[in-house]
Amino acid sequence: MPATTIDRRVLVVAILAAFVAFLDGSIVNVALPAITEEFGGGLPVQQWVVDAYLITLGALILLAGSLSDLLGRVAVLRIGLVGFGVTSLACGLAPTAELLIAARAAQGVAGALLVPSSLALIMSAHRGESQARAIGLWTAWTSAAFIVGPLLGGVLTDLISWRWVFVINVLPIAVTLVLMRPMRNEPAAVRTPIDVLGAALGAIGLGGVVFALIEQANYRWESAVVWVPLALGALSLVGFIVRQATARHPMMPLSLFRSRNFAVGNLATVAIYAALSISGLVIVLYLQQVAGLSATVSGLVMLPLTIMLIALSSRFGTLAGRFGPRWFMAGGPALAALGFVLLRAIETPFDFVSQALLGVLLYGLGIAITVAPLTSAILGAIEPERSGIASAVNNALARIAGLVAIALLGAVIGTVVDDAWLDNALLLCAGLMVAGALISAFGIRNPSTVTAPPTPAASS
Description:
Blueprint: H1 3-24, H2 32-39, H3 42-71, H4 73-93, H5 97-112, H6 115-125, H7 128-159, H8 164-167, H9 170-179, H10 196-219, H11 224-246, H12 260-289, H13 295-300, H14 303-323, H15 326-343, H16 352-355, H17 357-380, H18 387-413, H19 419-443
């Protein structure tokens, strides 16, 4: 098979594999009212259906990055795809809210195997400007999956059942597995032990903190049901950092953060993806539960954003490869912040053109400008042989940012979905985007002025 054909196949496989993981992070949002209509439980159940997936995904994605570098990207990707298909069917068949939440947690375990392996495949198959373009396409389609989820979920929920937002995953998974058949697995030449203790501390830490943030709405902060998991989670997260600093083979080598662009880019990622996660949830909930729109129409509101991501992200990725990522990463979130401010015009009765169109367009343009340069800046700062774990760290922080942001919603802006709730949430999103813009403007360095990435330290 010609090299160019192999590279294209790798790119398609990487996009499809990550697409399903990103899609499942947002497709469920628009189905949440239908899920709680069947199972009950209100906003806490809705939060848990979202966050059960994000907890295991965020907690284990670092471990998956290590496995990707150790066992080979193709092997880990195959395992993740099969597991994701099985757990997606379990979600679709769940008879109770509790079993759905458990299946979502299992789905997150499989999803954690997909993202770092898929991006590491691209980093190993492409170089130079071709790599920048490939990363642009990957970020365009995976980010589009995050945004198109509500539309696809709305159509499936309205026309068939909310259960199909999970079952639909089986189709792209099957296609991806077929495309992967001729691909060879290349495990690491040196087999580094897996940091199991680090993975356990990370999972307990995230789980405890998120449980407390969500359940405080039901039990209040003074309840032991809240503060005991919160304290245990916080101590576990401190233990996780200590473990990463002292372990011979850490799951998240802290030496990665010696690279300025890697450290600053990940800090920007936290702010930007927290805003993306909040907005993706609150807008569709408001449009259905307050404005009275159908699931499909609620999903259509963000369609222009998806189109702009697919059409423009690769172009901005190429431009960032040529001129450097700094001002793309600063200007993009600033535009998105303005879009969020304009979206505060949404009210009941809802009118898309007068209330939402300009805000959605600015939001979409801002994100299209941001995502590919952000990914390129972070991964371009790290040597290729550590691309798997570097990708895993970045994606873990993005998922964790969304996870904590959604868990905090009830504590920060309340649990009553109304006009004021939406306004406050969008203002919070705008503030997070401005933070991402400022972090990038003052912290990111373009390639000509960036210090060379550090060589692997003894701790890596």
